[in-house]
Amino acid sequence: MATHLFGDTAVLTGRSLRHITRSPDTIITTALMPIAMMLLFVYVFGGAIDTGSASYVNYLLPGILLITIASGVAYTAFRLFTDLQSGIFERFQSLPIARSGVLWGHVLTSLVANLISLVIVVGVALLMGFRTGAGVAAWLAVAGILVLFTLAVTWLAVVAGLSAKSVDGASAFSYPLIFLPFLSSAFVPTETMPGPVRAFAENQPVTSIVNTIRALFAEQPVGSDIWIALAWCVGLLLAAYAFAVALYRRKIS
Amino acid sequence: MAMTTQSVIQVQGLEKSYKELKVLRGVDFDVRRGTIFALLGSNGAGKTTVVRILSTLLRADAGTATVNGFDVATQPDKVRESFSLTGQFAAVDEILSGRENLVLVAKLRHLDEPGKIADELLARFSLTEAGGRRVATYSGGMRRRLDIAMSLIGNPPVIFLDEPTTGLDPQARIEVWNSVKELAEHGTTVLLTTQYLDEAEKLADRIAILHQGHIIVNGTLAELKQLLPPAKVEYVEKQPTLEDVFLTLVGTDK
Ligand SMILES: Nc1ncnc2c1ncn2[C@@H]1O[C@H](COP(=O)(O)OP(=O)(O)OP(=O)(O)O)[C@@H](O)[C@H]1O
Ligand SMILES: [Mg+2]
């Protein structure tokens, strides 16, 4: 069966990408909420926030990118849940295919959809005055971290999609993910937060990821943040992947 | 041994419980190559459970089942290459068009010329015109026809049809019946479940009734009719229909 894994995954990815092109609103909606937040924070609250950096949109963008991904993967859980409900999932299971291809199709689709949303959000940020002198290597590093983060939360979305009992349940897992950047260095420097909140903010994954991306865009040294960020992403990815695969095995055997 | 090599589906001592609910309590039957076998049973008798076990979607608690000579528990990959399933509820992709659904399955079955296969099936199931439309716009009957068409892709030697004609209008039912008969004539082995006794009467070479976890009868239509006492035949002054046989055997416990 393994011989078919790539072919079957390609076919199944093509199928769910087609779902996205048929309802492009999912990508727009994914991009819209973070864009609205960006407008709100830059033009309404931004004036009152002192980040110590010259441009608030430069400061804000990394966190907004993570929020974009967190809201985008909710659709992955939704699409997987819909497949389970509609019976098409069982049809796939009854075909002589590489069975993990069913999950990989959704995961790769998530990656593509989120990258498109991210490009849209970065485009809007540029219009709002976001500027960076980052070179190709720094951009690639940013893209790499965002891809890793997307994969990690996508596998979380797979867990949610496989275990949900209702459509709302399938996407509810993304709410805490969307909220997490608010308790991080994404919007305001953590130094301004009261003790316990600050301790949480400085030790949760979003802060290290945001700081790394911010440093890469500002052409500053990333320090140890990048290693903490990578450790979080890879750790989360492996844990979510293992959990999702175990859940899937139980579901289909 | 000649008999057993002819059996394409063999089920022995199959048991399955959902928590404390014992659905199958030792189910046995054989289906010979190229025949149509109908599994009858009331709602909740366990017909779908049997079909799901045979199609490797569910594990039995006890007993064995083979499809095309392969054990469903130990050789599920081989089994999946041998059958195709039309489940009780249409399993189609609503967002894709009818044609795209067929192409998708043909590709997943690793066949050449998926487009050509799709067009042939669309024509065969009177869906050519609707083929380019999203399935979400299809009527229940069209959806069911597409669902069955998807199951015929790749000509697997065994076909499972779980209540294939539920919700179809009389004409569509006859179309499906004709397709099923045609399949059997070409050597495909068909296991179908149904609530419609006339469907079993018209189509099946053998009929089995699943009741309270067991197969309580298994035979040809003629054999089943002999199970009724002749007095009943005289009283109604006509041949008992399968419905009479069914209701007598299943009794009044419902
Ligand atoms: N996943 C499940 N969990 C718990 N109980 C189940 C599950 N699937 C089926 N059952 C129960 O097992 C029994 C048999 O179900 P099954 O679907 O096999 O019956 P059926 O003969 O196909 O019925 P129908 O004619 O209504 O389709 C029913 O009582 C049903 O409620
Ligand atoms: Mg059923």
UniProtKB/TrEMBL annotation, chain A:
<dbReference type="GO" id="GO:0046677">
    <property type="term" value="P:response to antibiotic"/>
</dbReference>
<feature type="transmembrane region" description="Helical">
    <location>
        <begin position="102"/>
        <end position="130"/>
    </location>
</feature>
<dbReference type="GO" id="GO:0140359">
    <property type="term" value="F:ABC-type transporter activity"/>
</dbReference>
<comment type="similarity">
    <text>Belongs to the ABC-2 integral membrane protein family.</text>
</comment>
<feature type="transmembrane region" description="Helical">
    <location>
        <begin position="226"/>
        <end position="248"/>
    </location>
</feature>
<keyword id="KW-0812">Transmembrane</keyword>
<dbReference type="InterPro" id="IPR000412">
    <property type="entry name" value="ABC_2_transport"/>
</dbReference>
<dbReference type="InterPro" id="IPR051784">
    <property type="entry name" value="Nod_factor_ABC_transporter"/>
</dbReference>
<feature type="transmembrane region" description="Helical">
    <location>
        <begin position="136"/>
        <end position="158"/>
    </location>
</feature>
<keyword id="KW-1133">Transmembrane helix</keyword>
<feature type="transmembrane region" description="Helical">
    <location>
        <begin position="59"/>
        <end position="81"/>
    </location>
</feature>
<protein>
    <recommendedName>
        <fullName>Transport permease protein</fullName>
    </recommendedName>
</protein>
<dbReference type="GO" id="GO:0043190">
    <property type="term" value="C:ATP-binding cassette (ABC) transporter complex"/>
</dbReference>
<keyword id="KW-1003">Cell membrane</keyword>
<keyword id="KW-0813">Transport</keyword>
<feature type="domain" description="ABC transmembrane type-2">
    <location>
        <begin position="25"/>
        <end position="251"/>
    </location>
</feature>
<dbReference type="Pfam" id="PF01061">
    <property type="entry name" value="ABC2_membrane"/>
</dbReference>
<feature type="transmembrane region" description="Helical">
    <location>
        <begin position="27"/>
        <end position="47"/>
    </location>
</feature>
<keyword id="KW-0472">Membrane</keyword>
<dbReference type="InterPro" id="IPR047817">
    <property type="entry name" value="ABC2_TM_bact-type"/>
</dbReference>
<dbReference type="InterPro" id="IPR013525">
    <property type="entry name" value="ABC2_TM"/>
</dbReference>
<keyword id="KW-0046">Antibiotic resistance</keyword>
